[in-house]
Recover the amino acids of this structure.
């Protein structure tokens, strides 16, 4: 079985500081990376910044700073955010790095060699905000201003010499590929959008610009810079040392397991990128997943709309793990979702503090009071204990499959239901009434401790810091976290001392409480 897993986030534009939408994609990617890692996979996890093009050049001009200096500063805030979000990315790529430039120019040469690139002239609409070309049918006029219908960004007229990529040539091969690889574009609702776009006919794509210079030069024609999307998409392989395809990184991790992106950039990833790869005879990524948007009110949160939520503000107020938990649980994965402080506070109070935190504290206190602070011995599992323990064991492969289908909603619901069942189990079994049936009391405590261990492991990809704190009860460290151990009902060593831990989550005082 292939035990290598390669996940990527989009590389973000450092035109302004990161916002909640960026944090969302990165946290979700980290969730998958962490899950795969505890399930024994060798994980490569890439994120970074997309620094070329007119959008960045103009943003730097507006600030009156040199473009690279401007990128250095903002790219650094994205790198810092990765740390603040506790991401386990294994690399952070900037498209202004030399390793990337070499890779892009090599890819360009391959495309040219295979006769997929030719010189002509582009006359049409361009959105600098989206760094995208639009046809007449894709734009509308609002108050005398031409805008993209899909993104509502302003477009401007471009009329200049340009290199073109023979995208039209790849229309049929792409449709064939989508058909033969039904999971390539996910979720399914978005796949149909892409297929109808391709079926409606692909025109050749302009892949160079002549009227500005902030980009990677076209080899052998320094008057042109390479179109920023051809440049940016290549990051996924330049970080694996492409063009050195015999390099260990490339051999181990290409094709990528999944490119996780927002639905706004699906066309670039599900049409242009696979076409570039087909044309350069490279394997295609296994999956493109276009998640929904974090909305602010009813609108997509974005810098141009001025409705940005700052992840740092929320983290300072509530802490990182509550934010991670909230984004993973409350934004139904694949769909759009709203952020509300009220729902975030509910998550903290009810799921994290009441259901998880309390379970830990109750069981620890009971173990100290009745079992001398030790994992009890003389265990004899009964039907009711095995029922709850087997619930993990019998669902292990199902959980793995759900993760491979990006069904985060299943994963989190499984945890929420199990937490409910676990609290109910402890209440129903009434160990405090079993002080003379010592074997029964011990078995209930043992089972409860095992459940806490298992749930904490499942929570690790979502709320890593809190999960590690909870696992301190058993003296377990990050390296001990293995998903496969959820199968084992007798993992905890009888007679070994457990540890008291601090309160995991402070409840938020609500005004109407
Ligand atoms: O598009 N809700 O960069 P970008 C959810 N550089 N996710 C959001 C979001 C929101 N409101 N806003 C942004 C680019 N995102 C290109 C990508 S990849 C080769 C090049 C997330 O800074 C989401 O993942 O505009 C979206 O696709 C990405 O940030 C766009 O970031």
């Amino acid at each position: 079985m292939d035990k290598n897993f390669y996940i990527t986030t989009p590389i973000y534009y450092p035109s302004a500081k990161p916002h909640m939408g960026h944090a969302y994609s990165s946290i979700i990617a980290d969730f998958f990376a962490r899950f795969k890692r505890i399930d024994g996979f060798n994980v490569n996890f890439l994120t970074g910044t997309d620094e070329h093009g007119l959008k960045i050049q103009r943003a730097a001009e507006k600030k009156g700073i040199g473009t690279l200096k401007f990128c250095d500063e903002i790219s650094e805030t994205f790198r810092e955010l990765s740390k603040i979000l506790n991401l386990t990315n294994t690399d952070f790529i900037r498209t202004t790095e030399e390793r990337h430039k070499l890779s892009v120019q090599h890819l360009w040469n391959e495309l040219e060699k295979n006769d997929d690139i030719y010189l002509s002239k582009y006359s049409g609409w361009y959105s600098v905000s989206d760094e995208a070309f639009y046809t007449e049918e894709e734009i509308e006029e609002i108050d005398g201003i031409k805008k993209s219908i899909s993104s509502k960004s302003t477009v401007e007229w471009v009329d200049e010499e340009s290199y073109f990529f023979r995208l039209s040539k790849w229309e049929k091969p792409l449709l064939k590929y989508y058909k033969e690889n039904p999971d390539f574009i996910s979720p399914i609702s978005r796949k149909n959008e892409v297929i109808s776009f391709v079926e409606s006919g692909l025109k050749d794509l302009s892949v160079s610009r002549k009227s500005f210079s902030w980009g990677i030069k076209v080899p052998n024609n320094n008057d042109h810079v390479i179109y920023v999307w051809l440049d940016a998409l290549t990051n996924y392989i330049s970080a694996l040392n492409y063009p050195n395809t015999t390099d260990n990184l490339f051999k181990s991790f290409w094709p990528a397991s999944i490119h996780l992106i927002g639905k706004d950039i699906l066309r670039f990833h599900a049409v242009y990128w696979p076409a570039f790869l087909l044309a350069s005879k490279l394997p295609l990524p296994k999956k493109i997943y276009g998640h929904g948007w974090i909305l602010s009110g009813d609108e997509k949160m974005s810098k141009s709309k001025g409705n940005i939520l700052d992840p740092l503000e929320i983290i300072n107020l509530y802490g990182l793990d509550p934010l991670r938990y909230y984004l993973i649980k409350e934004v139904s994965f694949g769909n759009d979702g709203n952020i509300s402080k009220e729902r975030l506070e509910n998550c903290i109070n009810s799921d994290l503090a009441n259901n998880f935190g309390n379970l830990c504290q109750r069981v620890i206190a009971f173990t100290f009071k009745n079992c001398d602070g030790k994992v009890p011995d003389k265990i004899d599992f009964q039907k009711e204990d095995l029922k709850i323990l087997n619930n993990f064991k019998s669902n292990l492969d199902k959980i793995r499959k759900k993760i491979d289908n990006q069904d985060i909603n299943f994963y989190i619901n499984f945890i929420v239901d199990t937490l409910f069942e676990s609290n109910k189990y402890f209440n129903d079994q009434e160990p405090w009434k079993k002080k003379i049936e010592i074997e029964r009391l011990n078995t209930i405590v043992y089972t409860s401790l095992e459940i806490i261990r298992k749930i904490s492991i499942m929570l690790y990809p979502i709320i890593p810091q809190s999960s590690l704190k909870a696992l301190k009860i058993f003296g377990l460290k990050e390296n001990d976290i293995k998903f496969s151990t959820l199968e084992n009902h007798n993992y905890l060593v009888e007679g070994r001392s457990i540890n008291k831990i601090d309160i995991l989550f402070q409840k938020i005082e609500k005004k109407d409480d």
Q: What stands out?
A: The chain has a mean pLDDT of 95. Residues 10-13, 21-22, 24-25, 50, 232-233, 235, 261-262, 264-265, 293-294, 300-302 surround ME8 (CB under 6 Å). The radius of gyration is 26 Å. The first strand starts at residue 4 and ends at 12.
